[in-house]
């Protein structure tokens, strides 16, 4: 068993997290993650109203008796959702772990802390991670440039970002971006992280509530089949390469403003991809780690495989490399 500061602090068996994903972080997936011994997050804003979020938490509790959390992502929006009402729904639902992402969560922290809720904040830079620790979060999830969704504007890959964050923080660090298997888990632990966060890999599981066509496309895709949109707007997002994302990138190269692409990137169109399986209906998020994904297992199969293979890597392959005498096998 891989016991880390993260597993001990958050009361889970394995140092593996399924972070919040819009339209994906629903009860059936989160409960499967919890039952596997990992930590899953319901995505608050996937639910139409705060009242629906409370019901989704209750539905998840009917499927698992193990710890799970709720993600609250705070991002620029044409019509901002009622964040305070979603926050109150989280508190009233009795959830004890929250993942925040996007903007600084300082305005929400006092409410969560007063309710005895632990907060993991997702960051894309060391400077933001340091600030998150300073304002009182319990752990940081650090997102490398390889990730799906918003990687920030610094373009620092996980191999650099993870140890750089660890060098500056005293709270647990969860590595995110580019991780899809045991090798990524072991590498993250070697870099100083206390656990890993996976989005794309959990999206491509049997319990994931997205259309089968999406899962099969992730398996078929390589690490090169993503696009970076909104670069010209300083709000970069990594999404799957399809007709819509290519059009967005082309328009940005021509010097468009947001109003000229708003109809292409509307959230309702991305939701249609996940629900109907129409892969060119809109933009949809996926990370470069899709190039490492070759199957659609159950969540339990995925987590069990990752943990067992990680333990084997640590106790056998790496241990054997360390134990091998210098110059062994070299003729004198």
List keywords for this structure.
332 residues, alpha/beta, TIM Barrel, 8-stranded parallel beta barrel, two-stranded antiparallel ribbon
Descriptive account of the structure:
- Pfam families: NMO.
- Its EC number is 1.13.12.16.
- InterPro entries: Aldolase_TIM, NMO.
- The protein has helices spanning 5-10, 27-35, 50-61, 83-93, 109-114, 126-135, 158-168, 182-190, 200-203, 212-220, 243-253, 267-276, 299-323; strands at 16-18, 39-43, 69-74, 97-102, 118-123, 139-143, 173-176, 195-198, 226-229, 237-240.
- α3 packs parallel to α4 and α6 (126-135) packs parallel to α7 (158-168).
- The strands form two sheets. An eight-stranded parallel barrel has the order 1-2-3-4-5-6-7-8, surrounded by five helices. A two-stranded antiparallel ribbon has the order 9-10.
- It has 332 residues and is an alpha/beta fold.
- It folds into two domains: 5-208, TIM Barrel, CATH 3.20.20; 212-276, no CATH class.
- It is globular, with a radius of gyration of 20 Å.
Please give a quick description of this structure.
This protein is α/β, with parallel strands linked by helices. The chain has helices at residues 5-10, 27-35, 50-61, 83-93, 109-114, 126-135, 158-168, 182-190, 200-203, 212-220, 243-253, 267-276, 299-323; strands at 16-18, 39-43, 69-74, 97-102, 118-123, 139-143, 173-176, 195-198, 226-229, 237-240. Strand 4 (97-102), helix 5 (109-114) and strand 5 form a beta-alpha-beta unit.
């Amino acid at each position: 068993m891989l016991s880390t500061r993260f597993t001990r602090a958050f009361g889970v068996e394995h140092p593996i997290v399924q972070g919040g994903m819009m339209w994906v972080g629903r009860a059936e997936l989160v409960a499967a993650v919890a039952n596997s011994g990992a930590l899953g997050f319901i995505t608050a804003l996937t639910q139409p109203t705060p009242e629906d979020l409370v019901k989704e938490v209750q539905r998840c509790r009917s499927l698992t008796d193990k710890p799970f959390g709720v993600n609250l992502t705070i991002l620029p929006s044409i019509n901002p959702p009622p964040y305070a009402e979603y926050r109150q729904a989280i508190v009233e639902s009795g959830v004890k772990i929250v993942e925040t992402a996007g903007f600084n969560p300082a305005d929400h922290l006092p409410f969560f802390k007063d309710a005895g809720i632990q907060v993991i904040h997702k960051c894309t830079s060391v400077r933001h991670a340091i600030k998150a620790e300073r304002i009182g979060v319990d752990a940081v999830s650090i997102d490398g440039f390889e990730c799906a969704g918003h990687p920030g504007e610094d373009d620092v890959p996980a191999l650099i970002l993870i140890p750089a964050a660890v060098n500056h923080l005293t709270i647990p660090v969860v590595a995110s971006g580019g991780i899809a298997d045991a090798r990524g888990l072991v590498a993250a632990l070697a870099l100083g992280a206390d656990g890993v966060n996976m989005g794309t890999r959990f999206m491509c599981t049997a319990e994931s509530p997205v259309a089968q066509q999406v899962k099969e496309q992730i398996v078929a895709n390589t690490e090169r089949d993503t696009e970076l949109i909104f670069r010209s707007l300083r709000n970069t997002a990594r999404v799957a390469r399809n007709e819509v994302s290519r059009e967005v990138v082309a328009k940005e190269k021509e010097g468009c403003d947001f109003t000229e692409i708003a109809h292409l990137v509307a959230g309702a169109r991305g939701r249609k991809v996940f629900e109907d399986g129409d892969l060119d209906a809109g933009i949809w998020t996926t990370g470069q780690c899709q190039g490492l994904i070759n199957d659609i297992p159950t969540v339990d199969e995925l987590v069990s495989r990752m943990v067992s293979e990680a333990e084997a890597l640590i106790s056998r392959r790496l241990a054997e490399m360390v134990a091998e005498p210098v110059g062994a096998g070299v003729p004198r």
